[in-house]
Backbone:
């Protein structure tokens, strides 16, 4: 027959440590920390006074030291302590240390991943002067530790203890994280672990503190930003900040506000805003009548944006304006583009606006040429490659790149189509002033010249009517746009159709013409008159300068979204006679 046995609690203790994440109102009482069985209002149990409004000490330590835990029961002294491990009960964060748990073995059903015994040496630390640990990467039996100002390697899952003679000890030691060895070079990952990417035996990351883009490989660390882009990354990485910034915007409320009830009987409150997605970013916090709401932003429909709220905001029918707040900080997103076999890095400034390309810059590094090959017009939130396909995340959607199943879809990123362009510098005979007369290229139809300009010539000071200096006069030869072959074709009998697709022959060409399978065009000067010039502007052909900067891009009329090849661009020039 079963019997109830009463267990006596003599000299037993309950120790509880909690951290408050809020500031209670002064003068109120709380039952926090909560003890098992005392979750509700305990009778006869002491309460704890609320903090003062400006009290920053958020650690509470409660120790039960009465027989049976009763309110008026006899107090007990401390008993014998077997060992003392922690001399303080305050929380601490060691940014340069690692901790590991017990073992996990699926074959024997051993799972000690929640066991952190203080009786064992389960922590390893790296040099605290090199900053906090930002990222860990396990590679085979090695662990790579990325600190803010240093990169280290450590052995894992093997014993590396040797005697003085170099032979292994007969008694092995249970070492999970072995000897930590720093890589040569004073580089780290700063506070941008999101810049990390790997492929094969190569790892890529950025060091914002030193304005560098790094590669970690078998030969150690290499500063790949030095391959022709050192100035660019030095200047742009210096603007990346780790401080949180607020993105604040307002939107007007339209008449369509209220609530709807779905089939399950759940009421959904909404506000329709007279704003576009350029102003309202998904994930922003909605503030209505000084109250913060979790919200879900839908796509723009009929020139308004519908926002669903998680609760009733009250008299929303009378609202005229609401506010949105989002806290962001600068990011450096890195990924491996397995299709192009490039390391992609995107520098993103906060507040981030995916529709404003001045807030971000995305570039790629190609190992085959050891150079930075291209800039891109897309801004990924996250990116990566899976099974030979490159994906990015943007606007809460997953996008697949290089999708050949959709015809004529090139240069389309996140639903926005852009052109492809290449900027070149013509600089033959650098010390000779030249007249560039023509431009030509080898490739397919559909390319136009947006910019063809010479170097800047700084002349004498510019004076006003009373003899006060007004800066310097700068002269620069520029040209008009050179239309592509199809774009510049016009009807001879209707020359006003220049730039419009011509349909009625005979035709003439205001831009590139095709000769011997090359596209050629003369250059029409479009410069302002200089002092002493008799002929200038479109009355003369060619431009003058030591060198010329040329930007060639795809047009919008020749097979939009289709393939366009470009092999070479050149110019005919003569030595200037004056």
Residues:
């Amino acid at each position: 027959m079963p019997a109830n046995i009463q267990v006596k609690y003599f000299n037993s203790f309950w120790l509880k440590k909690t951290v408050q994440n809020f500031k209670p109102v002064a003068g109120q009482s709380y039952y926090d920390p909560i003890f098992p069985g005392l979750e509700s209002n305990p009778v006869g149990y002491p309460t704890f006074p609320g903090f003062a409004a400006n009290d920053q000490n958020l650690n509470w330590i409660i120790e039960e030291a009465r027989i049976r835990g009763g309110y008026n029961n006899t107090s007990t002294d401390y008993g014998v302590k077997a060992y003392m491990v922690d001399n303080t009960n305050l929380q601490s964060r060691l940014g340069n240390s690692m901790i590991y748990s017990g073992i996990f073995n699926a074959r024997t059903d051993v799972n000690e991943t929640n066991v952190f015994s203080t009786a064992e040496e389960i922590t390893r630390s790296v040099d605290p002067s090199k900053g906090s640990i930002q990222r860990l990467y396990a590679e085979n039996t090695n662990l790579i530790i990325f600190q803010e100002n240093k990169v280290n390697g450590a052995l894992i899952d093997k014993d590396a203890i040797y005697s003085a003679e170099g032979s292994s000890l007969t008694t092995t030691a249970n070492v999970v994280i072995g000897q930590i060895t720093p890589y040569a070079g004073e580089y780290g990952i700063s506070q941008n672990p999101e810049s990390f990417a790997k492929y094969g035996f190569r790892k890529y990351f950025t060091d914002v503190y030193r304005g560098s883009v790094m590669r970690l490989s078998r030969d150690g660390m290499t500063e790949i930003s030095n391959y022709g882009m050192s100035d660019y990354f030095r200047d742009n990485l210096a603007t990346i900040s780790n401080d949180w910034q607020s993105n604040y915007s307002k939107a007007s409320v339209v008449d369509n506000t209220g609530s709807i009830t779905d089939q399950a009987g759940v009421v959904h409150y909404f506000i329709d805003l007279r704003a576009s997605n350029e102003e309202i970013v998904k994930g922003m916090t909605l503030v209505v009548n000084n109250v913060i709401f979790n919200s879900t932003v839908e796509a723009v429909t009929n020139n308004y944006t519908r926002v669903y709220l998680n609760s009733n905001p009250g008299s929303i029918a009378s609202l005229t304006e609401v506010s949105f707040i989002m806290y962001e900080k600068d990011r450096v997103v890195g990924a491996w583009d397995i299709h192009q076999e490039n390391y992609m890095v995107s520098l993103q400034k906060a507040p981030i606006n995916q529709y404003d390309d001045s807030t971000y810059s995305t570039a790629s590094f190609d190992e085959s040429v050891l150079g930075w090959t291209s800039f891109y017009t897309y801004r990924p939130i996250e990116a990566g490659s899976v099974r030979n396909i490159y994906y990015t995340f943007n606007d809460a959607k997953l996008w697949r790149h290089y999708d050949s199943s959709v015809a004529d879809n090139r240069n389309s990123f996140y639903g926005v189509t852009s052109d492809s362009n290449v900027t070149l510098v013509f600089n033959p005979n650098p010390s000779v002033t030249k007249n560039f007369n023509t431009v030509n290229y080898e490739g397919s139809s559909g390319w136009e010249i947006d910019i063809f300009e010479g170097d800047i010539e700084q002349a004498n000071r510019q004076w006003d009517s009373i003899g006060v200096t007004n800066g310097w006069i700068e002269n620069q030869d520029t040209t008009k746009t050179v239309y592509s072959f199809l774009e510049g074709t016009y009807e001879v009998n209707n020359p006003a159709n220049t730039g419009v697709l011509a349909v009625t022959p005979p035709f003439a060409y205001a831009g590139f013409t095709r000769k011997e399978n090359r596209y050629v065009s003369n250059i029409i000067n479009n410069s302002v008159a200089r002092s002493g010039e008799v002929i200038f502007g479109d009355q003369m052909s060619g431009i003058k300068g030591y060198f010329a900067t040329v930007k060639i891009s795809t047009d919008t009329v020749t097979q939009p979204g289709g393939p366009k090849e470009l092999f070479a661009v050149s110019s005919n020039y003569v030595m200037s006679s004056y």
Q: What stands out?
A: The chain has a mean pLDDT of 76. The two ends are 120 Å apart (CA to CA). The CA atoms of residues 112 and 326 lie 40 Å apart. Helices lie at 230-237.
